[in-house]
Input
Amino acid sequence: MEDLSFFFGVIGNIISILMFLSPVPTFWKIAKHGSTEDFSCLPYICTLLNCFLWTYYGIIKAGEYLVATVNGFGILVETIYIILFLVYAPKGIRARTAILAVILDVVIFAAAVVTTLLALQGDSRSGAVGIMGAGLNIVMYSSPLSVMKTVVTTKSVEYMPFLLSFFFFLNGGVWLLYAVLVRDVILGVPNGTGFVLGTIQLVLYAIYRNGGKEVSKNRLEEGLQHEPLISQPNNESYQREHRAT
Output
């Protein structure tokens, strides 16, 4: 059982690393254009806080070093993303982003560490940190709900990338299995939520994957229905021709 849990933990680490690296094309585009354009840094700031909490959880919870290692990698990657965002963001946005990062990733995390170290011990401490990380994880996993609503409304998956949905499903499923094997409820709840939401997204993708084409076809047909069967001649040229004759 221990070997099996280690195996799924390693697989979960690999998938999580791929998810952490998925925004690389976005930041490559930002660096190439020299501007953050309309991109928001909030997801990366929240992910950094999430990584801090789960790394702390993996350190203080016995046997959860695989959770600590992958989230330690996440801390490094998300920090780089935020630094790049600050470099290329306009002055006003840069200041707001820096303030938000300090509040969430420094002040709140430091408060969580100090509070749990002074007020709690043993399983109570790791449980409190785990609950904070799980709550943030659930919020992050639930973020595509608005996109899912858009998919159902428009009957198109244009704004719901398949790979992101697939990794949500895969990452949640593997870490859920790991949590079951090591009997970690706190780790299982948020990843179970991610697995369910990822599954729903894949089902929606299967249903509406050709929706965009059908919508475009319907719009084209509607447009053709309003077009006259015989085009009318331009009035001025028509009159000139008849004057000439």
About this structure: Confidence is low (pLDDT under 50) at residues 215-233, 236-245.
